[in-house]
Each structure stands twice: as structure tokens, then as C-alpha cells.
Predict the structure.
Amino acid sequence: MEEVLDVYKRPYNRERPVVCMDESPKQLISGSQQSIKMKKGMDAKEDYEYVRHGMVNIFMANEPLKGKRTVEITKRKTKKDWAIFVKMIADDLYPEAKKITLVMDNFKTHAFSAFYETFEPAEARRLASRFEFIFTPKHGSWLNMAEIQLNVLTGQCLNRRISTMSEIKKEVKAWQEHRNKKDSTIDWQFTTKESRIKLKRLYPTIND
């Protein structure tokens, strides 16, 4: 936890950006009955029953100090999917960066080995050298600022029935462009000093 909080204290550095990355599943559903459209003075009404159309995965990359986020929708979230997304971060978003600090949870697919299972050895090594991985502690995913952005995305864009992958891609792209134009940064307030007070129970007791 303290390692993550120390990273968040770093000043903005164009050559060494701090990027938070997270992922979340999204169920594709549609209504089983025709909805009742909105009328003057009345809300739209939908039947509680729905039809499932499978799942998609949402990858989120967020640079908190720049107020920029990038979202990718994939069918799955395998090691290969993750490796391809992280390669996009390195080559498309930060091609000039010397080292990218990537904050994420310690999910099993988040490993340098994913590069070697997806790309040729030389390419895998090139990508590995571009990153510094910082992992949030187990049960501490709330320390990942990309999770905040995923919650905003869900509340503002995905809090309704969406039935197809193409539709969710269209909606997410519009949300991303709108948020990036606003340069919506995250003012992170939780510090190491505060953690030692508020989370005192998590620290070991030292007996003289």
C-alpha cells in the first residue's frame, strides 16, 4: 500500500508517466418485453425480465495527473488480451516515454510472462523494459485510481441495458472523448501518513 501511495506523490513527468490500469466485466443484456416509452410527466418503463447476450471485458487506462483515460472493449480478458492492451499503452499512448509506471491489481494475467506468451522474445523484452509494474495489495484494489474511472464510466454510461458489443464500443468511445475534453483529473488525498493513522490495525505491533 505504501509503495502505491509513494508513486501517487510523484510530480508529473512526461518521460516517466504514472498510469493506472484496471478491467471489469460487463454483461450484455436486452429486455424480453417491449418497453413503455417516456411520456410527459412519466418515466420510461422496462420489464424486470431480460435476455442475456454474453459478456465483454472493459480495459481502462488512466493517467490521473493528465486527466486522460483510454478504454478498450474485448471479448475476453486473457493474458493475450491484457498484453495487447498494455502494448497499446506503450506504443500508441506513450511512444516517447522512457519508462511507464503501471499501477494495477495483482490479477494472475498481469505479469511480464504475458508478453512472452503473446509476442516474439525480442518484442516481449522490449515491452517489459518499457514498464515499471506497481501492484496494489490483495483486497486493496480501491488504491487503484483506474477503478474510480471505471465506476464513473459505469454510472455515466453503462448503467442501462446494452445488448451488443458494437453498441457498447460506440457508447464508451463517446464517453471517453467527452471526459478527455474536460481534462478531468483525480485529486488523490489519501497519503501514507493518513494510512498509518486510519489503517493502524493493519500494521504489526512492535513490542520493546
User: Anything to note?
Assistant: Residues 2-28+51-75+88-104+131-181 form one domain.
